[in-house]
Batch of 3 targets.
Target 1
Amino acid sequence: MEVIEIALKASPAAAFTVAWCGHTFVPSRDELETARRALELGKKGDVLARDDAWADAIANYLDAAKLNSKDPILHMSIGVCYFQIGELERAYSFCQKAKQLAPAGYPETARIERNLAAVEESRALLKKR
């Protein structure tokens, strides 16, 4: 349980992965610092996205994804931001990646799928024009 608690403080996605996969490992100080920094960048991206500062949010999310490339929520968030600025192909790519990264039973799968469906629908409408 202690490993899950450490991972939860560093990154909820990491804690879910540890709990879900049943892996037992003790992350190094560097791994915890990297996870903490990724979480911090992701939270900053969330604030910027709420303020409709899409380009700045994307930059923060991309930096976070460099540190935590397997977090489906980061990829979905990047995709949503690209969707908001009309970059549908990039939005599709990131939302599709989020869906691929989400393990079976992941609690945010429905939200990822809804966002991916919205992007796909917009892409289809543009292709009809």
Target 2
Amino acid sequence: MKNFILSILSFISASILNAQTDIETITMQNIQPVYKQKKPHGDLYTAGQPSKDSFFTLKELGIKTVLNLSSDEEIDFPEKEVVVNLKMNYVNIPVTPANLDLKTIEKFSAVLSNPENYPIFIHCSSANRAATMVALDEIITNKQPVETEIQKATQYGITKEALKEKIRQIMKTKEGDIK
């Protein structure tokens, strides 16, 4: 009987330790299904469009702000309502090739510059715009080299050459405005 009780206690202890280990190993990489989710730096994450259920996981992982770069037409559920009901901040700055300019970047950078918004989860439909905007913010706000940030952004979302060229174009225009 004593061995039986010790076996049960051993099993319970092992189960508790495994549960604790499972909780400790939850990271942003475990979010499913978030398409192309990456952590560019610090408490800032980029991804393609998360599923409705992924926002519950994001909340559990401590995300404070969801920054959506998609238009309402690109999303097939009431994302703002889901995020707000989960008591996270919701910001929507729809980014398109037509409005990807310094004014849009300033709005984006204002969200990123507020420490109260972190950890922050930035997404669009495919992670391309999310990575583009993070790269532009790094270049403009933190004075990082254009090509270095473009290279980094290819690791966390940019797959379209047109967006890399758009970054270069914006920065040439900005440099011209400064001179």
Target 3
Amino acid sequence: MGVVDILFVRVARAVAGPLLATADTEWDLLLDAGLGVPFRCIRRAVPGMAGRGWGRIVIMSSECGTFARNATAGLVRSVASELSGTGVTVNAVFSADAGDPACVVDVAELLVHSPGISGEFLTVDSAGIRATA
């Protein structure tokens, strides 16, 4: 992989059924799509970003339930904390409109040009872009 300054990972919406109706293979796919893929992308991009003292990581996901949102938030908080002081920021965006190209561009530009934002969570919907807990 070449030099990566900005890593933007859009997590595909994966749907799991009720606990007792979800097969192990479905659960494994959900975990890999929601956490495995972003983790592997981040792990590959971070050494170069941290070495150069600048980088932006944005994980964008549809709001698809408490588990998926909390798992993504946990990954982002953990990585943001670990990279604190390196010049690399890590943020999550939860969006009902994640498939809208204009939404993706607006959010990416906001986070790329905001040097002090890291470990934050934004929600994007018809009401606009707002910080969320």
